[in-house]
Every structure is written in structure tokens, then in C-alpha cells.
Amino acid sequence: MKFSKYIQSGALAAVLFALVSCEPEIDLNSATSGGVDFSKYVALGDSYAAGFSDGAVFLEAQENSYPAIIARQLKMVGLSGEFKQPLMPAGNGLSSNPDFGKQQLALIDGSLLPSFLPVGDNVNQSVALQGPFQNLGVPGARSFHLSLPQYGVLNPFYQRFCSNPGAVSILDEAKAQQPTFFSMWIGGNDVLGYALDGGADTPGSEITTPEIFETSVRQVIDGLRSTNANVKGVIGNIPDLSVAPYFNFIQSQVAGTAITADQADLLNGYYGLLTFNLGLSEAQINELKGKGYYPIFAEGTGNKIVIKVPVTEDNPLGFRTLKSNEKVLLSAAAEGQFTTELAFLPKDDKYVLDSDELQAIETARVAYNAILEDVTADYDLAFADIETFVEPFLDGETIDGVNYSPTFVQGNLFSLDGIHLTQRGYAFFANEYIKAINQHYNSNIPAADYSQLPTVYFPK
User: Fold this and answer.
1) Quick one: three-class SS letters along the chain?
2) Rounded distance, CA 70 to CA 427, Å?
């Protein structure tokens, strides 16, 4: 089993999942607005709105961000003028690590793996004078960041296009344009920071409380309505974040890794030495094995990952085997934790989301979604039920001869960072928003053609 040290998360953003859709049967010659004024459209959100893909913001992915795709379709029903985005210069773009740009697949130690390219040229140069921008998606943004004036000096992705860093919020940028229609997808990062931190709850990665989340979302809508009382819009909810490849690839790789009888003996001996000083009886060891605390290794595949845990009266070992529903972060591979020699040694908590941490994420997500549904009803906005939409496709779905699934690299939906979508994935996302707009406002906006947009680039 070989993992590259160059695999990195590359993500300050939001979360995700498989988004697949058959094309709605809409007559391209009868596109109608349903009476909605689409003439000035702005998009608010996080890295998904920004078109973040393959671990970075770069030109080609920005051009096919889901707001850009929606804007192209809205041109048929009244959108006027250019839909401006804070585009990067041509090249590798900028990741969350200032030394790197986007990822590409490369042959490393005999394996085809994602590898970061150097950061692009002039990626931090301000483009504010080219504004105002209608795509206001900012990688890393949480719900409460949208109305935070200081965010323009805290986040380099926003700083490069903010009209007055430190004094103007993302919401202020939107309000100044007096939009007639808006889209928003926010909330992924309100739990994703905690997830990417392995549930460590360090300062800045805490889960946003539902109370703050609701206040923040309503503040955005009220702010937009303060400049145009008749503004219409669409908001999407948040699917299960844990289905993203970033949280599943390691487990699948380790489970399929075969070890020899000699390697199994060495591992069993190693864990025997770790517990020798505890003075455990054979009966106590057998009890710990039965509870899944004490790892047992055997020749072949199917051996379990071991994680570090606090010592308790029930488990005096300080480690246990990973449960079937728990997750190992892709960042563990980036930091060399899953080389052949280290794969089955105990892993630190920062690389793992355990059952309690996953439940905390899920509890918050469910609360956010209830809030988003209530908010869209209260303000009479379109509601894109992304959560329900994705569920049937998590096991894979073939459309026009192409299979779409959450499988890392080969699933066609998720990009090489394991969290963000491919450009075609963003088209599916856009089409679900368009579907929600059509249903709520009785409009007839054609779905975008996703067939020519790229998925993962494979080297020739």
C-alpha cells in the first residue's frame, strides 16, 4: 500500500457529497421567468460558490462554478449584463496553503495519486477594481462570516477582491448591488472546520451553534431586503458530509491491503509488548479483544485501523480498533501515517472522527437544515433539498453511460481534494438549484448541459 506525502486536504471549505441529475424535460424555446425579475443576480456562499476544485481556486474551475452555470441559464430569462467573478490568472491558482496551487494526478512511487502543483503567479494580487462582483463565494466562509466586515483581512480569498478590506463585508458587497435575485449555499464550513480538525474543537474550528447559524442566515436575507424588498432567491440545505471521499478513502484502502503472516505476527507482538506492563491476564486480554479494543491481526486483508483513545477503567489500553462507522481523514496520508510500515500503528485523534464526533456533526447539520427550511418558508424563497436529492446516488448511478459516485478520483463527482466537486459535479449542483427555482416560482429555466464539462483529469 502506497500513499503520497503530497496528498493534502487543500480545503477551507465546505463539504461534500454526490450530486447527480437527469436533465429536466424543458423546452429550450419556451424559457420563462415565472414573473421573477432575474435581471441582477448575486451568489453568496463558500468554496462551492467560488468554484473551488482539485484543492484550489483556479481559472477553469471558476468559469464553471455553480453560480456561473446558473447565471448562463438565467440569461435566457432576463439576467442582464455580465455575471462577474473574481477570476484568478491563468495557471495553477491558489490553495489554502499559500505555497501550492491546484492538484493533478501524478505517478508517485508507482501509484497514480493527487499531487499539488506550485502556486500560480499573481494569485494574491487584488482584483477589487474590476468589481463589483456578482459571485461572492469565499472559500472558508462560515454563516457568520458573510456579515463580518473584518473578514476581508482575515481571509486571503476574500481580500483579493474585497472593495474595502476590513470595512466591507460580503453582505455589504451584495447589498450595494441591489440584487433582484440571489442564491446561497452556506453552512458546510460551520461544521467542516471541526471535521477537518478531527473533532479536536481547537479555537476557530468549533461547530457553529444553531442559534448563531439562524441569526446569521436571517441577517443576510434581511440585509438584501433592506435594499430591495422584493428580492427573490434560492437556498440549499446541507447533505451528509461524511460521504465525501476525504473521510472514506483511507478506510477502503487499508481494508483492501493484504499483509503477510510474518507481518501479522510482528503486529501482534508489537501490541503484546504495549500491553505487557499493564499486567493483564489472558482472560482480561480476551475480554478486551471481544470489545474491539485489542487489535488482532491475521494474514490477508480486512485488518482494522487502530486509533489512540483516552485510558479508561473499561479500556486501560489507550487504543482500540476503528469502528465501522468511524472515519479517518485523508490528511493522515499526507502526513505519512499510512505507509506500509505505519498503516496499522495507533493513529492520533486528529486524524480520526470517532462516533461521538460524527454525532456532533450530524446533530448540527440536522439543526441547520431545519433552520434553512424554516427560513425559506418564512421569506417565501425557493428551497433546494440537496440532502434528499443526493441520497439515491450514494451507491453509484450511471447516466448516459458514465458512473457517478463518491468514489475517490474515479467517481467523477468529487475532485482530487476529496471534498469539493468536479466541474461537472458543479453543473449537477446548479441544475438542482434551477429545479428548485422552477418549482417555487413557476418559472421555466432550462437545465445546464453538463456533458461537456470535465471531471477528473487523467494524465495521458
Assistant:
1) CCCCCCCCCCCCCCCCCCCCCCCCCCCHHHCECCCCCCCCEEEEECHHHHCCECCEECHHHHHCCHHHHHHHHHHHHCCCCCCCCCCCCCCCCECCCCCEEEEEEEEECCEEEEEEEECCCCCCCCCHHHCCCCEEECCCCCHHHHHCCCHHHHCHHHHCCCCCCCCCCHHHHHHCCCCCEEEEECCCHHHHHHHHCCCCCCCCCCCCCHHHHHHHHHHHHHHHHHHCCCCEEEEECCCCHHHCHHHCHHHHHHHCCCECHHHHHHHHHHHHHHHHCCCCCHHHHHHHHHCCCCCCCCCECCCCCEEECCCCCCCCCCEEECCCCCEECCHHHHCCCCCCCCCCCCECHHHEECHHHHHHHHHHHHHHHHHHHHHHHHCCCEEECHHHHHHHHCCCEEECCEEEECCCCCCECECCCCCCECHHHHHHHHHHHHHHHHHHHCCECCCCCCCCCCCCCCCC
2) 9
Yes or no: say if 132 and 176 are a contact pair by the CB < 8 Å rule: yes
In angstroms, what is the C-alpha Rg of the chain?
A: 23
pLDDT digits (tens, 9 = 90+) for 384-435: 999 988 887 788 888 889 999 999 999 999 999 999 999 999 999 999 999 9
Tell me the backbone φ, ψ of residue 405, rounded to 5 degrees: -160, 175
User: Are 409 and 114 within 8 A, CB to CB?
Assistant: yes
Q: How far apart are the first and last CA of the chain?
A: 24
Q: Distance between alpha carbon 132 and the CA centroid of its chain, in Å?
A: 27
Query: Which residue in 97, 160, 165, 172 sits closest to 417, CA to CA?
Result: 97
Among 299, 333, 315, smallest CA distance to 416 is for 333
Counting every residue written for the chain, the total comes to 460
The verdict on pTM exceeding 0.70 is yes
Q: Which residue type, as a one-letter code, is found at position 435?
A: K
Q: Are 414 and 425 in contact (CB under 8 A)?
A: yes
| Axis crossing angle, helix 423-441 with helix 66-74, rounded to the nearest 10 | 50
Nearest-5° Cα angle at 76, 239 to 444 = 60
203-250 residue pLDDT tens: 889 999 999 999 999 999 999 999 999 999 999 999 998 999 999 999
Q: C-alpha grid cell for residue 100?
A: 501550492
The whole-angstrom separation of Cα 55 and Cα 298 is 37
Residue entry with cell 508507482? 110
Reading the block at residue 141, the C-alpha cell is 466562509
Residue 13's nearest CA partner among 148, 167, 185, 182 is 185
Rounded CA-CA distance 336/349 in Å is 15
User: Is the preceding peptide bond at 132 cis, omega within 30 degrees of 0?
Assistant: yes
